[in-house]
Amino acid sequence: MYLEPRLKGFLYADGWATYNKAGQYYEVGFQQSISKSSIYKYYRDKLLSIHKGYYKERLRNNKLEIKIYSKKIYTILVDVKRNPIKYFYENPIEFLAGLTDGDGSIMDTEIAIYDCNKALLNTICTFLKENMIRCRVNPCRSIWRIRIRGRESIEKFLTLIPVITRKITHVPRVKPRRLNRGGPCRGPEYHGLDLPWEAGSHRLPRLNTSRDR
């Protein structure tokens, strides 16, 4: 089974892969807020184009969510989450497009990409600098972020990386605050991230997925 690099980047950022021992099924899924429905539909269609089996969708707390049941896709995503740099090098542009759609924030004056894996962000930053895009990796709360500033660098990034992340044209001014871990992080840049789905929010019936195990 083949997952596109862009889908791998997005699921690395916003997806989950879990195995339910009681029900004996493998689950992969992601969610997006209603305001990002275009992103949800784009990656939903990509996921369902390679998965022809059982899946579930729902709208909950203003978030769109899809879950599929596939051992093959589960196995791939687990490896992507463990070795993101390896998969980034498969196709840097497409992987980064998916990562930015999942954990990126695009504004008129700055592009930011968030992740807890500093090594991955350093690798991405090196790639961007090789393409004449100025950037730097900074701490943000308990995670890390790439910051791209300056009109020229932002335009080069948007030309090189085919993102579909909704652009924010106005961001309210918020006083920076320094937390116990990491460096200062301005509110609007971080608050735009979707909260992760809480596993176990409801129980699912045991599924017959032996065909895909």
Question: How would you summarize this macromolecular structure in one to three sentences?
Answer:
39% of the residues lie in helices and 23% in strands.
How would you describe this protein?
This protein is α+β, with helices and mostly antiparallel strands and 213 residues long. The protein folds into two domains: 78 residues, Homing endonucleases (Endonuclease I-creI), CATH 3.10.28.10; 108 residues, Homing endonucleases (Endonuclease I-creI), CATH 3.10.28. 39% of the residues lie in helices and 23% in strands. The protein has eight helices and eight strands. The strands form two sheets. It has a four-stranded antiparallel beta sheet. The C terminus is likely disordered.
Biggest sheet features: 4 strands, antiparallel
- Total discrete domains: 2
What share of residues is helical? 25-40%
Based on the coordinates given, report the CATH architecture of the largest domain: Roll
Task: Name its key features.
213 residues; alpha+beta; Endonuclease I-creI; 2 domains; four-stranded antiparallel beta sheet; 8 helices; 8 strands; 39% helix; globular; disordered C terminus
Write the layout of secondary structure elements.
Layout lengths: L4 H10 E6 L4 E9 L3 H14 L4 E6 L2 E7 L1 H12 L1 H7 L1 H12 E3 L3 E6 L2 H13 L5 E5 L2 E7 L1 H10 L26 H5 L22
Antiparallel strand pairs: 1-2, 2-4, 3-4, 5-6, 6-8, 7-8
Helix pairs in contact: 1-4, 1-5, 3-4, 4-5
